[in-house]
């Protein structure tokens, strides 16, 4: 497999975004799930904050992709319908998906469209999540209107997704929308997470692919437990899916290639491995958001290591959960570690 144009071997080695640690703030405990894009010539990151009660979703802005400033919470608790009023994790907005183009937002029916998943109970991923969609006509991207009903639920899915639905990735191709998502097979004990796809022509009514999951775990390998959090980009006649694999010990980033968005070949090894002990990503390097800026691929991911005294935040599980980045070129002025060493 020819993956060299798509790898990002240079890690920044430190967070670009950290939770506030402020009691009562939406990101008191952690930040998670980066989604980086460009809008009206500005750089944005949509991300999730955890406050000990549940997830809420926010925007941050940047001028250089390395220094980020919180802008506003856009998907809040106690809003929306009952099913999405407690935990709401926004993960994707319809955008340009060509890997060599600026990741600008796209409109459909004169609106911007945002995908999210919501858990039914308070706590850390408590209950079986469903997938919802919201729209906005606000050029500031601060006011979003959630559709009342979920667009995908685990109850209507196959056995592999009965435990709940997770991170969304939305691609428009040949007048069809492709919704990639990962799901777990059960809420009890040790579960498997795999990735599937559904199709739509109107963003509201969706039909699952009959041969899901399209990306499956590999027994006894680095991705034996999860293949999750798809980030799908196009390079001419080829599609690239960044994802993370998990073996119940470490989460690391991987890559798969496809010619038709349905049949995927995984590269056998991680393309971003966890860091050494003490590094910001020594437990988890996962949940990709990959964009091109000034000819450089930037690979944002959620980075986790054990909590240390003095850290700004302490997440569930006593971890320091932040957002970091790796790049295709050493653009961090030598302040890097190698992602695949």
For the structure shown, list the relevant keywords:
about 350 residues; 5-stranded antiparallel sheet; mainly beta; 21 strands; Tachylectin-2, Chain A; 4-stranded antiparallel sheet; single chain
Can you walk me through this structure?
With 341 residues, the chain is mainly β. It has a single domain, classed as 5 Propeller (Tachylectin-2, Chain A). 0% of the residues lie in helices and 45% in strands. The protein contains no helices and 21 strands. The chain has strands at residues 10-11, 30-39, 42-50, 55-62, 68-75, 87-93, 112-119, 130-136, 145-146, 164-173, 176-184, 193-200, 207-208, 226-235, 238-246, 251-258, 264-266, 284-293, 296-306, 319-327, 337-338. A five-stranded antiparallel β-sheet has the order 18-19-20-1-21, with no helix packed on it. Strand 4 and strand 5 form a beta hairpin. The chain is globular and about 45 Å long. The chain starts with 9 loop residues before the first strand and ends with a strand. The mean pLDDT is 95.
